[in-house]
Design brief:
Blueprint: E1 4-12, H1 16-26, E2 29-43, H2 49-52, H3 54-57, E3 60-68, E4 74-83, E5 91-98, H4 102-111, E6 114-129, E7 132-139, E8 143-153, H5 157-170, E9 178-179, H6 183-191
Antiparallel strand pairs: 1-5, 1-8, 1-9, 2-3, 2-6, 3-4, 4-5, 6-7, 7-8
Length: about 190
């Protein structure tokens, strides 16, 4: 069985309202709306955001608390991302599992030599349209972002990426708004604590 890879583009939006309105006009439907709190971790030996980058340590590890704004239900998970090809931020393997306690998970990670270096607050709205996920985020201290995502088999990476870029252009998103790395990378530069 072939494993799916998440192909995504990340955008720091100049005009979120227009992009979101255009997407809704085309027929996109809201799938999820939540308040998120992400706690990011790295080895205790890391001294700055550059050293904490996924391409340096080999993974991106977070605890996520999410509160669904429709149901009020809160979920907590431990999530890990790795770069599918070891270098491209747009291609990720992702693993996630529910956890019962942020406090206990932090303690386990600390005992394993891993420290928290960043906390991010964001409000997320996810739309689905033509098999793609559109994750709009308002990130405290960073701004408005959008991730457009597709999950595909490894052989479909190139065509999926082209489809995402084409979709972004069709929503009047400028090339200058598309990021090489994640919105979290920007938050790391601005908000991390070492």
């Amino acid at each position: 069985m072939s494993r799916l890879i998440e192909v995504e583009i990340r955008i720091l939006l100049k005009n979120r309202k227009k992009v979101e309105r255009d997407l809704i006009t085309r027929g996109a439907r809201i799938a999820y709306s939540a308040e998120l709190k992400d706690y990011w971790f790295c080895p205790k030996s890391v001294k700055n955001p550059k050293e904490a980058a996924i391409e340096k340590i080999g993974y991106a590890l977070r605890i996520r608390e999410s509160r669904d704004l429709y149901t009020g239900k809160t979920n907590v998970s431990l999530e890990c991302k790795t770069l599918a090809d070891g270098k491209t931020h747009a291609l990720c393997n992702e693993h996630e599992m529910p956890i019962a306690s942020v406090k206990e998970t932090r303690a386990i990670l600390s005992d394993l030599g891993i420290k928290e270096f960043l906390a991010i607050d964001k409000r997320r709205v996810i739309y689905v349209y033509k098999g793609m996920k559109f994750c709009f985020d308002a990130i405290k201290g960073v701004g408005d972002g959008l991730e457009i995502e597709l999950n595909v088999k490894a052989a479909g990476q190139s065509s999926a990426y082209k489809k995402l870029i084409s979709t972004a252009r069709s929503l009047s998103i400028n090339e200058s708004e598309i990021l090489e790395k994640s919105l979290t990378h920007i938050a790391m530069q601005k908000l991390s604590r070492f």
